[in-house]
Write a structure and sequence with these properties.
three-stranded mixed beta sheet, Rossmann fold, alpha/beta, 38% helix
Amino acid sequence: MKARPVPSPPQPSPSRGALWAKSRTSVKAALGIGLVLGTAGATAFGSYRLALSSSSFSIQQVEVDTSRRLPDREVARRAGIGLGDSLLGLDLAEAERRLLTDPWVQSVRVTRKLPQTVRIQLVEHEAVALAAIDGEVFLVGGSGEPFKAWQEGDVHDLPVLTGVTGEALGRDRSGAVARFATGLRVLEQYERLPVSRAQRAEEVNLAPDGSVVLSVGAMGVALHLGQGPWPKKL
């Protein structure tokens, strides 16, 4: 007959007191870690609040790079930035948003330079032509984009682009802007010719099919250029 295996003696279960002691130790460790983290967080928050109110981090200088139209102080005012304000508390995104409400501002970036300086980097539109659209006049930038309605005091002694309607802008803005850009290229090519010194470019009419009529001189002599290539035809 095979011998029956002898069963192992039953292991004594931990006493209720031992389980309680182990649990209490774990709770103490967790409370200790929580206390350390809470103290560190409170210390960091207190330090941040102190830095916000410290004169060591107050704005003492605003660097503007670069505005051709406004003095640095006016740029800072429009951005909502004042000398003595907290540098750390400055809302950079809000300052940029405020400056972008000016139609002359193409792009802007506002940054901190610790300990006491704000830097504002501006890219402004430059008007290179005017556009007559449905009886209104707009300033046009180098990309062909009409960026601002003309008003008293704006530059006015510029060639005028015509032939693009407000409906065309609303229906296909990128296509309409491309037509304006074509007009700017024609003007650029014409201004390379010696005759442009005596017979100034006055108007470029842009037809939907891409045809161009360039009017020059005080008498408005019309050069029917059709479609490109512009240098050869000019």
